[in-house]
Design goal:
Oligomer: heterodimer
Radius of gyration of chain B: 20 Å
Largest sheet of chain B: 2 strands, parallel
Distance between the termini of chain B: 33 Å
Helix content of chain A: 25-40%
Strand order of the largest sheet of chain B: 1-4
Strand content of chain B: 5-15%
Number of helices of chain B: 12
Low-confidence stretches of chain A: none
Number of helices of chain A: 8
Mean pLDDT of chain B: 93
Distance between the termini of chain A: 26 Å
Low-confidence stretches of chain B: 1-10
Radius of gyration of chain A: 20 Å
Order of helices and strands of chain B: HHHHHEEHHHHEEHHH
Strand order of the largest sheet of chain A: 4-3-2-1-5
Order of helices and strands of chain A: HHHHHHEEHEHEE
Largest sheet of chain A: 5 strands, antiparallel
Number of strands of chain A: 5
Largest interface: A-B, 95 and 80 residues
Number of strands of chain B: 4
Protein backbone atom coordinates (compact mmCIF):
# COMPACT_ATOMS: atom_id res chain seq x y z
CA UNK A 1 0.00 0.00 0.00
CA UNK A 2 1.17 3.51 -0.72
CA UNK A 3 1.08 5.19 2.68
CA UNK A 4 2.85 7.87 4.62
CA UNK A 5 5.67 5.44 5.48
CA UNK A 6 6.53 5.21 1.79
CA UNK A 7 8.81 8.22 1.75
CA UNK A 8 11.21 7.65 -1.13
CA UNK A 9 11.31 10.63 -3.48
CA UNK A 10 9.16 13.03 -1.44
CA UNK A 11 10.45 16.56 -1.10
CA UNK A 12 10.07 19.00 1.75
CA UNK A 13 11.58 17.19 4.73
CA UNK A 14 14.59 19.45 4.95
CA UNK A 15 18.24 18.65 5.56
CA UNK A 16 19.48 15.42 7.13
CA UNK A 17 20.19 16.22 10.77
CA UNK A 18 23.03 14.01 11.97
CA UNK A 19 23.90 14.14 15.69
CA UNK A 20 27.54 13.79 16.71
CA UNK A 21 28.34 10.97 19.16
CA UNK A 22 24.71 9.92 19.22
CA UNK A 23 23.74 7.54 22.04
CA UNK A 24 22.14 4.18 21.18
CA UNK A 25 19.02 5.28 23.08
CA UNK A 26 18.19 8.90 23.87
CA UNK A 27 15.90 8.13 26.80
CA UNK A 28 15.47 5.09 29.06
CA UNK A 29 11.91 4.43 27.84
CA UNK A 30 13.22 3.94 24.30
CA UNK A 31 15.52 1.17 25.50
CA UNK A 32 12.62 -0.45 27.40
CA UNK A 33 10.36 -0.22 24.33
CA UNK A 34 13.06 -1.80 22.17
CA UNK A 35 13.75 -4.66 24.59
CA UNK A 36 10.10 -5.43 25.34
CA UNK A 37 9.48 -5.57 21.62
CA UNK A 38 12.37 -8.00 21.08
CA UNK A 39 11.23 -10.27 23.92
CA UNK A 40 7.47 -9.99 23.66
CA UNK A 41 7.32 -10.23 19.90
CA UNK A 42 4.78 -12.74 18.70
CA UNK A 43 4.61 -11.28 15.21
CA UNK A 44 6.53 -11.42 11.96
CA UNK A 45 8.38 -8.37 10.65
CA UNK A 46 5.71 -7.74 7.98
CA UNK A 47 2.96 -7.84 10.64
CA UNK A 48 5.01 -5.41 12.74
CA UNK A 49 5.55 -3.04 9.82
CA UNK A 50 1.92 -3.27 8.68
CA UNK A 51 0.74 -2.16 12.11
CA UNK A 52 2.96 0.92 12.02
CA UNK A 53 1.79 1.68 8.49
CA UNK A 54 -1.79 1.74 9.78
CA UNK A 55 -1.00 4.75 11.96
CA UNK A 56 -2.86 7.91 10.90
CA UNK A 57 -0.46 9.76 8.59
CA UNK A 58 -0.31 12.92 10.68
CA UNK A 59 0.47 10.87 13.80
CA UNK A 60 3.12 8.86 11.92
CA UNK A 61 5.01 12.00 10.97
CA UNK A 62 4.51 13.77 14.30
CA UNK A 63 5.75 10.97 16.56
CA UNK A 64 9.19 9.53 17.15
CA UNK A 65 10.51 6.20 15.96
CA UNK A 66 9.97 4.25 19.19
CA UNK A 67 6.49 5.75 19.57
CA UNK A 68 5.74 3.90 16.34
CA UNK A 69 6.85 0.73 18.12
CA UNK A 70 4.58 1.58 21.06
CA UNK A 71 1.65 1.96 18.68
CA UNK A 72 2.41 -1.46 17.24
CA UNK A 73 2.73 -3.18 20.62
CA UNK A 74 -0.48 -1.67 21.96
CA UNK A 75 -2.36 -2.64 18.82
CA UNK A 76 -1.02 -6.19 18.85
CA UNK A 77 -1.43 -6.96 22.54
CA UNK A 78 -4.97 -5.55 22.66
CA UNK A 79 -6.02 -7.36 19.47
CA UNK A 80 -4.51 -10.65 20.64
CA UNK A 81 -6.24 -10.48 24.02
CA UNK A 82 -2.94 -10.87 25.88
CA UNK A 83 -3.63 -7.46 27.42
CA UNK A 84 -7.04 -5.86 27.87
CA UNK A 85 -7.82 -2.18 27.47
CA UNK A 86 -8.70 -2.01 31.18
CA UNK A 87 -5.36 -3.52 32.16
CA UNK A 88 -3.50 -1.10 29.92
CA UNK A 89 -5.33 1.84 31.46
CA UNK A 90 -4.70 0.60 35.01
CA UNK A 91 -1.16 -0.61 34.38
CA UNK A 92 -2.01 -3.69 36.47
CA UNK A 93 -2.69 -7.27 35.42
CA UNK A 94 -6.23 -8.56 36.03
CA UNK A 95 -5.29 -12.19 35.50
CA UNK A 96 -3.02 -14.64 33.72
CA UNK A 97 -2.79 -14.68 29.93
CA UNK A 98 -4.69 -17.28 27.88
CA UNK A 99 -3.25 -20.80 28.23
CA UNK A 100 -0.62 -22.06 25.84
CA UNK A 101 1.77 -19.10 25.91
CA UNK A 102 5.38 -19.90 25.13
CA UNK A 103 7.63 -19.58 28.20
CA UNK A 104 9.33 -16.23 28.80
CA UNK A 105 12.83 -16.00 27.32
CA UNK A 106 15.33 -16.15 30.21
CA UNK A 107 18.32 -13.75 30.23
CA UNK A 108 20.82 -16.48 29.39
CA UNK A 109 18.98 -17.20 26.15
CA UNK A 110 18.96 -13.60 24.93
CA UNK A 111 22.38 -13.49 23.28
CA UNK A 112 22.11 -16.97 21.70
CA UNK A 113 18.67 -16.04 20.34
CA UNK A 114 19.93 -12.77 18.86
CA UNK A 115 23.06 -14.44 17.43
CA UNK A 116 20.95 -17.08 15.74
CA UNK A 117 18.44 -14.69 14.24
CA UNK A 118 15.61 -15.82 12.04
CA UNK A 119 16.38 -15.88 8.34
CA UNK A 120 13.48 -15.25 5.95
CA UNK A 121 14.97 -17.48 3.27
CA UNK A 122 12.32 -20.01 2.32
CA UNK A 123 11.98 -23.13 0.20
CA UNK A 124 10.44 -22.54 -3.21
CA UNK A 125 9.36 -25.13 -5.75
CA UNK A 126 9.11 -22.98 -8.86
CA UNK A 127 12.15 -21.92 -10.88
CA UNK A 128 12.85 -18.18 -11.04
CA UNK A 129 11.02 -16.38 -13.86
CA UNK A 130 13.77 -13.79 -14.26
CA UNK A 131 17.53 -13.88 -14.61
CA UNK A 132 20.23 -11.25 -14.09
CA UNK A 133 20.39 -8.90 -17.05
CA UNK A 134 16.69 -9.19 -17.80
CA UNK A 135 14.53 -6.04 -18.05
CA UNK A 136 11.47 -6.04 -15.79
CA UNK A 137 8.53 -3.70 -15.07
CA UNK A 138 7.14 -3.20 -11.57
CA UNK A 139 3.37 -3.67 -11.25
CA UNK A 140 1.13 -0.68 -10.65
CA UNK A 141 -0.73 -2.47 -7.84
CA UNK A 142 -1.61 -0.41 -4.80
CA UNK A 143 -3.18 -2.99 -2.48
CA UNK A 144 -5.00 -1.92 0.69
CA UNK A 145 -2.66 -4.21 2.65
CA UNK A 146 1.07 -4.25 3.38
CA UNK A 147 3.49 -4.51 0.50
CA UNK A 148 7.19 -3.81 0.01
CA UNK A 149 7.08 -1.98 -3.31
CA UNK A 150 8.11 1.64 -2.85
CA UNK A 151 5.77 3.96 -4.78
CA UNK A 152 8.70 5.49 -6.64
CA UNK A 153 9.37 2.29 -8.63
CA UNK A 154 5.76 1.38 -9.48
CA UNK A 155 5.37 1.06 -13.23
CA UNK A 156 9.07 1.70 -13.80
CA UNK A 157 11.41 -0.48 -15.82
CA UNK A 158 14.68 -1.74 -14.39
CA UNK A 159 17.27 -4.47 -14.85
CA UNK A 160 17.58 -7.53 -12.65
CA UNK A 161 21.09 -7.60 -11.18
CA UNK A 162 20.72 -10.61 -8.86
CA UNK A 163 18.32 -13.43 -8.04
CA UNK A 164 18.33 -14.41 -4.38
CA UNK A 165 16.09 -17.50 -4.39
CA UNK A 166 13.01 -17.96 -2.25
CA UNK A 167 12.07 -15.72 0.68
CA UNK A 168 8.86 -15.60 2.70
CA UNK A 169 6.46 -13.28 0.89
CA UNK A 170 6.01 -10.19 3.04
CA UNK A 171 2.59 -9.28 1.61
CA UNK A 172 1.19 -12.67 2.64
CA UNK A 173 2.96 -12.73 6.01
CA UNK A 174 1.40 -9.39 6.93
CA UNK A 175 -2.00 -11.03 6.51
CA UNK A 176 -1.08 -14.02 8.66
CA UNK A 177 -0.30 -16.35 5.74
CA UNK A 178 3.07 -17.55 6.90
CA UNK A 179 3.87 -20.34 4.42
CA UNK A 180 3.99 -18.52 1.09
CA UNK A 181 7.42 -18.02 -0.46
CA UNK A 182 8.35 -15.97 -3.49
CA UNK A 183 11.53 -15.41 -5.45
CA UNK A 184 13.43 -12.28 -4.52
CA UNK A 185 15.51 -10.15 -6.89
CA UNK A 186 17.59 -7.02 -6.80
CA UNK A 187 16.53 -4.65 -9.58
CA UNK A 188 18.59 -1.68 -10.76
CA UNK A 189 16.79 1.48 -11.83
CA UNK A 190 18.67 4.28 -13.56
CA UNK A 191 17.96 7.50 -11.66
CA UNK A 192 16.80 9.20 -14.88
CA UNK A 193 14.18 6.45 -15.30
CA UNK A 194 12.80 7.30 -11.84
CA UNK A 195 13.10 11.06 -11.69
CA UNK A 196 13.41 12.23 -15.29
CA UNK A 197 15.47 15.38 -15.63
CA UNK A 198 15.94 15.48 -11.86
CA UNK A 199 17.72 12.13 -11.82
CA UNK A 200 21.51 12.08 -11.81
CA UNK A 201 22.98 10.82 -15.07
CA UNK A 202 25.51 8.71 -13.15
CA UNK A 203 23.19 7.56 -10.35
CA UNK A 204 21.16 4.37 -9.91
CA UNK A 205 18.84 2.97 -7.26
CA UNK A 206 18.81 -0.74 -6.42
CA UNK A 207 15.61 -2.16 -4.93
CA UNK A 208 14.89 -5.67 -3.63
CA UNK A 209 11.63 -6.86 -5.15
CA UNK A 210 9.61 -10.06 -4.99
CA UNK A 211 8.76 -11.86 -8.23
CA UNK A 212 5.05 -11.16 -7.62
CA UNK A 213 5.76 -7.45 -8.08
CA UNK A 214 7.42 -7.89 -11.49
CA UNK A 215 6.56 -8.53 -15.12
CA UNK A 216 8.92 -9.02 -18.05
CA UNK A 217 9.49 -5.76 -19.92
CA UNK A 218 8.26 -5.96 -23.50
CA UNK B 1 8.56 13.02 29.47
CA UNK B 2 9.37 14.86 32.68
CA UNK B 3 6.92 17.68 32.01
CA UNK B 4 4.66 17.89 35.05
CA UNK B 5 1.67 19.01 33.05
CA UNK B 6 1.90 16.25 30.46
CA UNK B 7 3.19 13.33 32.46
CA UNK B 8 -0.22 11.66 32.96
CA UNK B 9 -1.52 11.92 29.41
CA UNK B 10 -2.14 8.67 27.49
CA UNK B 11 0.39 9.83 24.97
CA UNK B 12 3.35 9.85 27.34
CA UNK B 13 5.59 7.17 25.87
CA UNK B 14 7.43 6.46 29.14
CA UNK B 15 4.13 5.64 30.84
CA UNK B 16 2.86 3.65 27.89
CA UNK B 17 5.88 1.34 27.76
CA UNK B 18 5.88 1.06 31.55
CA UNK B 19 2.30 -0.22 31.44
CA UNK B 20 3.03 -2.77 28.71
CA UNK B 21 6.23 -3.95 30.39
CA UNK B 22 4.58 -4.28 33.81
CA UNK B 23 1.68 -6.27 32.40
CA UNK B 24 3.85 -8.62 30.33
CA UNK B 25 6.09 -9.28 33.33
CA UNK B 26 3.13 -9.86 35.68
CA UNK B 27 1.62 -12.29 33.18
CA UNK B 28 4.89 -14.19 32.82
CA UNK B 29 5.25 -13.35 29.12
CA UNK B 30 8.62 -11.65 29.53
CA UNK B 31 11.39 -12.04 32.11
CA UNK B 32 12.55 -8.65 33.50
CA UNK B 33 16.17 -9.81 33.69
CA UNK B 34 16.04 -10.53 29.97
CA UNK B 35 15.00 -6.92 29.29
CA UNK B 36 18.22 -5.71 30.94
CA UNK B 37 20.21 -8.24 28.94
CA UNK B 38 18.76 -7.02 25.61
CA UNK B 39 19.49 -3.40 26.46
CA UNK B 40 23.01 -4.21 27.63
CA UNK B 41 23.67 -6.16 24.44
CA UNK B 42 22.72 -3.35 22.07
CA UNK B 43 24.18 -0.56 24.19
CA UNK B 44 27.58 -2.13 24.73
CA UNK B 45 28.24 -5.32 22.76
CA UNK B 46 26.78 -4.85 19.29
CA UNK B 47 27.72 -1.77 17.32
CA UNK B 48 29.80 -0.40 14.45
CA UNK B 49 33.07 -1.59 15.98
CA UNK B 50 31.93 -5.06 14.85
CA UNK B 51 31.57 -3.92 11.26
CA UNK B 52 34.90 -2.11 11.47
CA UNK B 53 36.62 -5.40 12.27
CA UNK B 54 35.01 -6.99 9.21
CA UNK B 55 36.20 -4.15 6.97
CA UNK B 56 39.72 -4.16 8.37
CA UNK B 57 39.98 -7.91 7.85
CA UNK B 58 38.86 -7.48 4.24
CA UNK B 59 41.52 -4.78 3.74
CA UNK B 60 44.38 -7.04 4.85
CA UNK B 61 43.20 -10.45 3.65
CA UNK B 62 42.27 -10.73 -0.06
CA UNK B 63 40.87 -14.21 0.40
CA UNK B 64 38.60 -13.00 3.20
CA UNK B 65 37.55 -10.08 1.02
CA UNK B 66 36.58 -12.48 -1.73
CA UNK B 67 34.48 -14.56 0.68
CA UNK B 68 32.90 -11.43 2.16
CA UNK B 69 31.74 -10.17 -1.22
CA UNK B 70 30.54 -13.60 -2.32
CA UNK B 71 28.88 -14.87 0.88
CA UNK B 72 28.45 -11.93 3.23
CA UNK B 73 26.71 -13.61 6.16
CA UNK B 74 29.13 -16.55 6.32
CA UNK B 75 32.23 -14.35 6.13
CA UNK B 76 30.91 -11.96 8.78
CA UNK B 77 30.06 -14.92 11.03
CA UNK B 78 33.72 -16.00 10.85
CA UNK B 79 34.41 -13.00 13.10
CA UNK B 80 31.57 -13.94 15.43
CA UNK B 81 28.89 -11.53 14.21
CA UNK B 82 25.56 -12.96 13.12
CA UNK B 83 21.85 -13.09 13.76
CA UNK B 84 18.96 -10.70 14.18
CA UNK B 85 18.68 -8.24 11.28
CA UNK B 86 21.85 -9.58 9.70
CA UNK B 87 20.77 -13.07 8.72
CA UNK B 88 21.21 -12.47 5.00
CA UNK B 89 23.96 -9.95 4.38
CA UNK B 90 25.13 -8.46 1.11
CA UNK B 91 28.41 -6.54 1.14
CA UNK B 92 28.83 -3.72 -1.38
CA UNK B 93 32.35 -2.86 -2.50
CA UNK B 94 33.25 0.78 -3.08
CA UNK B 95 35.77 1.29 -5.89
CA UNK B 96 37.34 4.31 -7.58
CA UNK B 97 34.39 4.15 -10.04
CA UNK B 98 31.46 3.24 -7.74
CA UNK B 99 30.19 4.66 -4.45
CA UNK B 100 27.46 2.72 -2.62
CA UNK B 101 25.03 4.12 -0.05
CA UNK B 102 22.30 2.26 1.88
CA UNK B 103 18.81 3.35 2.93
CA UNK B 104 15.45 1.87 3.91
CA UNK B 105 12.80 4.18 2.45
CA UNK B 106 9.89 2.14 3.84
CA UNK B 107 11.00 1.72 7.47
CA UNK B 108 14.40 1.37 9.14
CA UNK B 109 16.11 -1.83 7.92
CA UNK B 110 19.77 -1.82 8.98
CA UNK B 111 22.41 -4.53 9.61
CA UNK B 112 22.33 -4.82 13.40
CA UNK B 113 25.08 -7.44 13.97
CA UNK B 114 27.70 -5.31 12.21
CA UNK B 115 26.46 -1.74 12.82
CA UNK B 116 24.21 -1.96 15.89
CA UNK B 117 20.97 0.00 15.96
CA UNK B 118 20.57 2.79 13.40
CA UNK B 119 21.06 6.48 14.24
CA UNK B 120 17.98 8.71 14.33
CA UNK B 121 18.77 10.41 11.02
CA UNK B 122 18.83 7.04 9.21
CA UNK B 123 15.25 6.38 10.37
CA UNK B 124 14.00 9.93 9.83
CA UNK B 125 11.95 11.26 6.93
CA UNK B 126 14.61 13.60 5.48
CA UNK B 127 17.16 10.85 4.75
CA UNK B 128 14.61 8.23 3.69
CA UNK B 129 12.82 10.57 1.29
CA UNK B 130 15.77 12.31 -0.28
CA UNK B 131 18.70 9.91 -0.62
CA UNK B 132 17.01 7.96 -3.45
CA UNK B 133 16.15 11.21 -5.25
CA UNK B 134 19.21 13.40 -4.76
CA UNK B 135 21.91 11.21 -3.23
CA UNK B 136 24.79 13.53 -4.06
CA UNK B 137 23.10 16.48 -2.37
CA UNK B 138 22.41 14.42 0.77
CA UNK B 139 25.97 13.08 0.85
CA UNK B 140 27.33 16.62 0.42
CA UNK B 141 25.26 17.79 3.40
CA UNK B 142 26.85 14.99 5.40
CA UNK B 143 30.29 16.16 4.31
CA UNK B 144 30.96 13.75 1.47
CA UNK B 145 31.54 15.14 -2.03
CA UNK B 146 31.33 12.38 -4.63
CA UNK B 147 33.01 13.35 -7.91
CA UNK B 148 30.63 13.41 -10.91
CA UNK B 149 32.69 10.73 -12.64
CA UNK B 150 31.99 8.29 -9.80
CA UNK B 151 28.71 6.36 -10.12
CA UNK B 152 26.46 6.59 -7.06
CA UNK B 153 24.47 3.45 -6.29
CA UNK B 154 21.72 3.80 -3.71
CA UNK B 155 20.52 0.50 -2.16
CA UNK B 156 16.96 0.58 -0.81
CA UNK B 157 16.62 -2.28 1.73
CA UNK B 158 13.04 -3.16 0.84
CA UNK B 159 13.23 -6.89 1.63
CA UNK B 160 15.08 -9.06 4.16
CA UNK B 161 18.57 -8.63 2.76
CA UNK B 162 20.76 -6.30 4.79
CA UNK B 163 23.57 -4.25 3.28
CA UNK B 164 27.04 -3.30 4.49
CA UNK B 165 29.33 -1.04 2.48
CA UNK B 166 32.97 -2.07 2.21
CA UNK B 167 34.73 1.30 1.91
CA UNK B 168 38.06 1.77 0.17
CA UNK B 169 41.17 1.52 2.31
CA UNK B 170 42.60 5.00 2.92
CA UNK B 171 45.92 5.77 1.26
CA UNK B 172 48.92 6.00 3.54
CA UNK B 173 48.00 2.93 5.60
CA UNK B 174 50.40 0.46 4.00
CA UNK B 175 51.69 -1.98 6.58
CA UNK B 176 49.10 -1.08 9.22
CA UNK B 177 47.75 -3.96 11.26
CA UNK B 178 44.09 -4.89 11.47
CA UNK B 179 43.42 -3.18 14.80
CA UNK B 180 44.89 0.12 13.62
CA UNK B 181 42.94 -0.09 10.37
CA UNK B 182 39.68 -0.90 12.19
CA UNK B 183 40.09 2.33 14.17
CA UNK B 184 39.79 4.24 10.87
CA UNK B 185 36.48 2.63 9.92
CA UNK B 186 33.50 4.80 10.84
CA UNK B 187 29.86 3.78 11.05
CA UNK B 188 28.98 6.18 8.25
CA UNK B 189 31.65 4.72 5.96
CA UNK B 190 29.83 1.38 6.24
CA UNK B 191 26.42 2.99 5.45
CA UNK B 192 28.03 4.87 2.57
CA UNK B 193 27.33 8.34 3.94
CA UNK B 194 30.96 8.90 4.86
CA UNK B 195 34.50 7.71 4.26
CA UNK B 196 36.97 6.06 6.63
CA UNK B 197 39.16 8.40 8.64
CA UNK B 198 42.45 9.41 7.05
CA UNK B 199 45.58 8.21 8.81
CA UNK B 200 46.42 11.75 9.91
CA UNK B 201 43.00 12.04 11.63
CA UNK B 202 43.38 8.76 13.49
CA UNK B 203 45.81 10.13 16.03
CA UNK B 204 43.55 13.04 16.87
CA UNK B 205 40.66 10.64 17.29
CA UNK B 206 42.61 8.31 19.55
CA UNK B 207 43.76 11.21 21.65
CA UNK B 208 40.23 12.61 22.01
Amino acid sequence: MIGIHDLGGLRGFGPVAAEADEPVFHEPWQARAFAVNILGGRWTAPEFRASIERMPPVEYLATSYYEHWLHQMEEFFLASGLITAEELAQGRSAGPPPAGQPPAIPPERVVPMLRKGDSCRAPIATPPRFAPGQRVVVTLDNPPTHSRVPAYVRGRTGTVTAGHGGFWFADAQAQGILDRSDHLYTVRFAAVDLWGRNGGANDAVYVDLHESYLEAAS
Amino acid sequence: MSSSSGSKTPGDPALRIKAIETLLVEKGIIDPAAIDEVIETYQHRIGPRNGARVVARAWVDPEYRRRLLAEGSAAIAELGFSGAQGEDMVVLENTPEIHNVVVCTLCSCYPWPTLGLPPVWYKAAAYRSRVVLEPRAVLAELGLQVPPTVEVRVWDSTAELRYLVLPMRPPGTEGWDEAALAALVTRDSMIGTGLPLRPEAAGARTGA
